[in-house]
Amino acid sequence: MTAATVSTRLVLVAACALVDLDGRILLAQRPEGKPMAGLWEFPGGKVEAGETPETTLIRELAEELGIVVKEDCLAPLTFASHAYENFHLLMPLYICRRWEGMVQPLESQKLTWTEPKKLRSFPMPPADEPLIPALIDLL
Ligand SMILES: Nc1nc2c([nH]c(=O)n2[C@H]2C[C@H](O)[C@@H](COP(=O)(O)OP(=O)(O)OP(=O)(O)O)O2)c(=O)[nH]1
Question: Is 118 part of a structural domain of the chain?
Fold first, then answer.
């Protein structure tokens, strides 16, 4: 089997950098018991059958944070393409500056708002590190 035919599972995850009025970004800590527990990530989740990345984010942001986001408030910024051991992650990253409701940790996850230039002080999944310069440039 050549490298080109080795099968790897492609997992599509939609993620969102929520940006507040001070230009800070929301990170959520992955809970104990999950892979990469303790690392800080952008809210989001796997795109399920029948969903678009935008509808996934609208669902996940409501479930995880209790906020209502409209599709036209989700702006694509960049994406991650990263080979994990068991799957290949393809993760579009959106920016959202406008939502309804107060951000709450509905899944008992720790949340933090951080300035873009301090993002590197939070341990993040390896797929996320290449995304940081795009956020610093934008904000
Ligand atoms: N939401 C999010 N997921 C990320 C980021 N970076 C990164 O590598 N991931 C990975 C972690 C997971 O393997 C996958 C997200 O899927 P998920 O949140 O539905 O998966 P999970 O492991 O928490 O839980 P499960 O649904 O598989 O039980 O993408 C990120 O910044 N945000």
Answer: yes
CATH code of 48's domain: 3.90.79.10
| Both structure tokens of 66 | 């209790």
Could you tell me if the CB of 41 is within 6 A of ligand 1? Answer: yes
Question: Taking the model in full, what pTM does it have?
Answer: 0.94
What ipTM does this complex have? 0.93
Is residue 73 situated within a structural domain? Answer: yes
Q: Angle at the Cα of 16 (from 11 to 19), degrees rounded to 5?
A: 165
Q: Is the separation of the CB atoms in 29 and 40 below 8 Å?
A: yes
Q: Which residue, by CA, sits nearest to atom 4 of ligand 1?
A: 41
> Does residue 25 have a pLDDT over 60?
yes
Atom 16 (ligand 1): residue with closest C-alpha? Answer: 45
Is the CB of residue 13 below 6 angstroms from any atom belonging to ligand 1?
A: yes
**The pLDDT of residue 132 is above 70:** yes
